[in-house]
Design a protein that fits this description.
10 helices, elongated, six-stranded parallel β-sheet, alpha/beta, 323 residues, six-stranded antiparallel β-sheet
């Protein structure tokens, strides 16, 4: 049985806090390979000193606080991020509310009151470019300078490069916006995924011989409109399929919707929460002159999706359980 993953929030009483832990500190949007290097450093530090290792992150994303009217394509909402963090072997996560008060907290106060005072941390792992505190004054160098006086260990991880390009959440967003899901997968270490509840649609897919499970994604989702090979998680079960994300130009050109056709599956999924991992990009969204032409293309899309998924039989993110 996997160890329990503890989530500590601003409202968590002191008696329930894992004091004396080491923390991997960051925003962790996507929990990509750069983030995982920081997490691995915290896990190693924890093992070396016999202490639990936690992630320390902020919600909402600070960018959302500072630019509330600017659309933000998040790779992972809070529940998805915590499930990914729980799958890394960490003992838990500290989720700090990023609000006006926290944005106005100086870096020194954050270190002394939050990290040392409330959490009692004994070690910190951060990425080379992580900043915190009012005016983003807090930095890895500040932590390293304070560490000897505070009696804590600091590990600063350099950037992770793939083909001489640094891995970043921004680079992954760009890849997904261009339909480069394989590139996004490489930077993430696993396919990008979403979780959502299956809703009722227009039932057109059923009439076409392709009944779909429909999920409404976040309005700010920047994924390229098109057809994808997908692997779906329903609890521990894994199901292969082909999915369309877009506006259905052949029919109504409506609001973006994710429509998933699961291979070799029969059953009612309405109201169920599914994980959908994007394994391969097949083609752009298109408008067809006839339903018959659309069906022929869907047959071809399905064959291509089956081949992509057969070539990546284990492609799925490692997700932990968050109580």
């Amino acid at each position: 049985m996997a160890p329990q993953f503890t989530v500590i929030r601003d409202t968590t009483p002191d008696s329930a806090i894992l004091k004396g832990a080491v923390v991997a500190m960051g925003n962790f949007d996507g929990v990509h390979l750069g983030h995982r290097a920081v997490i691995a450093a915290a896990l190693e530090m924890g093992r070396a000193h016999g202490r639990p290792a936690l992630a320390l992150t902020f919600e909402p994303h600070p960018r959302r606080f500072f630019s509330p009217n600017t659309p933000q394509f998040r790779l992972t909402d809070e529940p998805a991020k915590l499930r990914l963090l729980a799958g890394t072997g960490l003992a838990g996560a500290v989720v700090m509310t990023f609000d006006k008060a926290r944005a106005g907290t100086s870096a020194q106060d954050f270190i002394h009151h939050e990290l040392i005072g409330r959490l009692g941390v004994k070690g910190i792992a951060v990425g080379y470019d992580f900043h915190f505190g009012k005016g983003r004054v807090g930095s890895p160098s500040l932590l390293a300078n304070e560490a000897p006086r505070l009696g804590i260990e600091i590990d600063v991880q350099p950037h992770v490069d793939i083909d001489e390009r640094p891995v970043s959440s921004s680079a992954i967003r760009i890849a997904l916006a261009e339909g480069q899901v394989e590139e996004a997968t490489t930077m993430l270490g696993a396919p990008w995924f979403i979780n959502g509840e299956v809703i009722h649609g227009e039932k057109r897919g059923r009439d076409l011989g392709y009944p779909t499970a429909n999920i409404r994604l976040d309005a700010n989702c920047g994924l390229k409109h098109g057809i994808y090979a997908v692997r779906v998680g329903r609890g521990p079960e894994r199901l292969n399929g082909v999915a369309s994300f877009g506006r259905r130009p052949t029919f109504d050109n409506g609001a973006p919707l994710l429509e998933i056709f699961l291979f070799d599956f029969k059953g009612d999924l309405y109201g169920q929460a599914l994980d959908c991992a994007f394994v391969g990009f097949i083609r752009d969204e298109m408008k067809f002159d006839s339903v018959e032409a659309l069906i022929r293309q869907m047959d071809d899309d399905s064959a291509r999706a089956r081949a992509m998924l057969a070539a990546a039989p284990d492609a799925f993110p490692r997700l932990g359980v968050v109580d």
